[in-house]
Amino acid sequence: QMQLVESGGGVVQPGRSLGLSCVASGFTFSGYAMHWVRQTPGKGPEWVAVISSDGSFTDFADSVKGRITISRDNSKNTLSLQLNSLKTEDTAIYYCARAFFSSNSYWFDPWGRGTLVTVSS
Amino acid sequence: EIVLTQSPATLSLSPGERATLSCRASQSVSTYLAWYQQKPGQAPRLLIYAASNRATGIPARFSGSGSGTDFTLTISSLEPEDFAVYFCQQRNTGWTFGQGTRVDI
Predict the structure, then answer these.
(1) pLDDT at A84 over 90
(2) B-chain residues within 8 Å CB-CB of A103?
(3) Do the Cβ atoms of B95 and A112 come within 8 Å?
(4) What is the DSSP string of A16-66?
(5) What pLDDT is attached to residue A77?
(6) What is the mean pLDDT of the segment spanning A79-85?
(7) Would you place residue A18 in the very low, low, confident or very high pLDDT band (cuts 50, 70, 90)?
(8) Contact partners, residue A84, CB within 8 Å, separation at least 6
(9) Cβ B45–A43 below 8 Å, yes or no?
(10) Taking the CB of residue A117, how many other CB atoms lie within 10 A of it?
(11) Which of A3, A19, A23, B51 has a CA between 20 and 30 Å from the CA of residue A99?
(12) Cβ B89–A45 below 8 Å, yes or no?
């Protein structure tokens, strides 16, 4: 059974940094691109970042570009997200999700259960 | 950025009834549209991809249709476990999501 488990969320002051992790199991992690998606309660999700299967390509949403780093360790089945210069508007549940390719495009499947990041002084 | 607008915001129905959810894109996304189900405290689950393809393990009562800018998710006969929030998502340009439709009893 495929599973993604995020960790690392918490309360952090504005301007500080936080690192999130996502451990994958049940599929060949090294064969898939991976995403981070975030969601503020009561709102629709927002795509944050993607990394290719080998880590050679990354892309970021404009709202976080320049402030975050995405990386992966295929030997440990682990995806990471480093959030820097955090703003109150970065408060959200952060999900990792696998890039599922079918019908000539990519979809998010499966998702983890998320980790909550709260940016507050 | 392509904006997805879902309607209605809330749909109040009873088990056994038919649910029809709408997702409209601000510009054409061809058939690069997916639907996800989310229950409180749970991860979102992929239901439909490429507008009309059911994901693995998704019951046949869920169906998707549409192309271009107008899409529909239909649940033919609501089961108790179907009461949840549903999001649409496009992958024609970037990745964006709708604001969701809550299906309530």
Answers:
(1) yes
(2) 31, 49-50, 53
(3) no
(4) --EEEEEEEESS-GGGS-EEEEEE-TTS--EEEEEE-TTSS-EEE-TTTTT
(5) 98
(6) 97
(7) very high
(8) A17, A67, A68, A69
(9) no
(10) 21
(11) A19
(12) yes
User: How far apart, in whole angstroms, are the C-alpha atoms of residue B15 and residue B55?
Assistant: 23
CB B22 within 8 A of CB A86: no
Residues in chain B with CB shorter than 8 Å from the CB of A113 are 41-43
Asked if A45 lies within 8 A of B46 by C-beta distance, the reply is no
Residue A81 burial (C-beta neighbours within 10 Å; 0-12, 13-18, 19+): buried
CA distances from B62 to A60, B59, B85 (A): 32, 6, 14
CB contact under 8 A, B98 and A44: yes
Q: How far is CA A109 from the centre of its chain?
A: 13
